[in-house]
Design a protein that fits this description.
Elements (H helix, E strand, L loop, with lengths): L9 E5 L10 E6 L12 E6 L2 E7 L14 H10 L4 E10 L9 E2 L3 E4 L27 H13 L4 E2 L3 E4 L8 H10 L3 E3 L5 H7 L3 E11 L10 H27 L7
Parallel strand pairs: 1-4, 1-5, 5-11, 6-8, 7-9, 9-10
Antiparallel strand pairs: 2-3, 3-4, 5-10, 6-11
This protein binds hypoxanthine.
């Protein structure tokens, strides 16, 4: 895979706690439409260091769209149409694995989809043929390596593995549901990891998840989950997420699209 800069912008989909990307030198903002409807926010175009970037706020700006109502297809399509071939999805998650406490960063390597009723594929309607994409490895390994090496260089508290359990929300889980997720092999739980990753794969784009643990998952601590706790973890951990984005950006811009 080439690491020469392709000149293509990198897409960043910011989740809870990352509605705007400070440090991005903004060159333009565009409201766009897609055959699937409007994306969650304007596309904010700019530069992070030397790399051109297109930023999109998954829950809108201001934060108003709940996880089950995000138009994931419009978001991924809008980035694709803007020339993006590599997406970093930033996600706030609950930690199940004992090492994954608040403010810890995770670059997961697998995902299990527990969501339902979401528009989760581009392949529908009058199709000429049915397509089954390969999704064995949902995250682009080369992109994961770039995030991992940036996290290591910045000496951050992070894990370079993890199975992301994508739940429907918007409520948080019961303690029994988290035990079930754990038995299934999930290390972290969030509500926005799917169908975003699969949609990117359908468009043959590189996709990687950069997750910030904002609470211990339900039943994994001695207290109930509060917004105060979540906000404190975001405050503590988001600077590390931004450092990883800044350090890895040029490398991500040099990845060739999947299957090319
Ligand atoms: N569960 C699901 N989604 C989440 C959580 C959680 O505990 N924390 C942040 N997003």
């Amino acid at each position: 895979m080439s690491t020469e800069n392709t000149g293509q912008p990198v897409g960043i989909i910011g989740g809870t706690g990352l509605t705007t990307l400070s440090g991005l030198q903004i060159t333009g903002e565009r409201s766009v439409n897609t055959p699937w409807g409007q994306p969650s926010s304007k596309l904010v175009e700019g530069r992070l260091g030397d790399q051109s970037v297109v930023f999109l706020a998954r829950h809108g700006n201001p934060h108003r769209i709940p996880p089950h109502q995000v138009n994931y297809r419009a978001n991924v399509q809008a980035l694709h149409d803007a020339g993006v071939r590599t997406i970093v999805g930033v996600n706030a998650v609950g930690g199940i694995h004992p090492d994954m406490g608040p403010a810890h960063i995770v670059i997961p390597d697998q995902i299990i989809d527990y969501t339902w009723g979401r528009a989760s594929t581009f392949f529908e309607g009058e199709l000429e043929e049915t397509t089954h994409i390969d999704f064995t490895w949902p995250y682009t390994e080369k992109a994961r390596e770039l995030l991992i090496s940036a996290a290591r260089d910045e000496a951050l508290s992070f894990s370079d593995f993890g199975v992301y359990g994508a739940t429907q929300g918007p409520r948080l889980e019961t303690a029994a549901e988290v035990l079930k997720l754990e038995r299934d092999g999930c290390d972290l739980v969030g509500m926005t990891g799917m169908p975003e990753a699969a949609l990117a794969a359908e468009l043959q784009m590189n996709y990687v998840c950069l997750a910030l643990v904002v609470n211990r998952a339900a039943g994994k601590s001695d207290h109930i989950i509060t917004m105060t706790e979540i906000e404190a973890a975001i405050e503590q951990g988001m600077s590390g997420i931004k450092r990883i984005l800044e350090v890895s950006m040029a490398g991500l811009g040099g990845l060739t699209p999947q299957f090319s």
